[in-house]
Amino acid sequence: MPGRSARPQRKPPDTTLELADRLHSAAIHLLRRLRRQDDASGLPAPQLSALSVIVFGGPITLGDLAQAEQVRPPTITRLVAALEADGLVERVSASDDRRVVHVQATSRGAKLLQEGRQRRVASLAAALRGLPAGERGAIARAVPAMEKVVRGE
Amino acid sequence: MPGRSARPQRKPPDTTLELADRLHSAAIHLLRRLRRQDDASGLPAPQLSALSVIVFGGPITLGDLAQAEQVRPPTITRLVAALEADGLVERVSASDDRRVVHVQATSRGAKLLQEGRQRRVASLAAALRGLPAGERGAIARAVPAMEKVVRGE
DNA sequence: TCATTTAGTTAGCCTAGCTAAGTATATTAT
DNA sequence: ATAATATACTTAGCTAGGCTAACTAAATGA
Question: How wide is the angle at C-alpha B11 spanned by C-alphas B6 and B13, nearest 5°?
Fold first, then answer.
């Protein structure tokens, strides 16, 4: 019985509301599962997420980063402060508008992301590899649509 | 690892590692988006999630609930305490083993779940309704597999 | 009987999120 | 030119979720 959900559901949802509900629930549990297996790799998920945007999105203002990360300005200030304290990113103030702060990855930050990301999602990847190909394929085909939802399109 | 939001991607992932990465990222952003739209209506996500297990899974021990929710015992103690303080669940100690505590929903808890939960996911449901039917279907077909991954099967 | 295991709680810590209010810089209107 | 307003970010202070370590109480078993 360990590991057994109290609510096993194997049928696809058949109303949009049920779909939303189950997607929501699955997201919560997915992240909790990953967080628990994360410990070795270093940064907490939100910091890693922000770092990833910074590394891939180049220098970015704090405001844009907050929007990309779907959080309020004070939250991004704090996340960036934590990353900066670890030497993974640095602030650069804009020359033309001195209110604006750009943030960019240091080489250490970029390196940590490259190395750490695979480790962090390794357990999820392993679980996905354990699925029948058809089910893994179903998830793969759903991901672009999920990203669209997340971006609010 | 997340972070694809700075660069929208519309292609399905073609390696398992990339799939894991993007699924993870989508889950993070999905939950943040929902949290922000979670009005005064009710409980924070983790409490709602636990309440849902309790309502649908009947009376359940704290240990089993912790497992179902993928959290450590102290966390479940705290979540249940919060739900109890709101009169949504109640503790019942087991007659045969006095260490064990079962938790069950009150009628208020069951009612709040029925009403409030749908409200909470309403914005997600609306976003899903805005998708082309094919993409919504892709997500619907992926959900059972995601639940399987989450349960660690 | 006494040691061990099991279920849950308590204490104490850290991180993530928020709002409200503050500072500094830009912009706009008078 | 200056006053009002808007923007970008920070600070302060709060709620909440997550953890480990250490505890109590009850069951099990040698």
Answer: 90
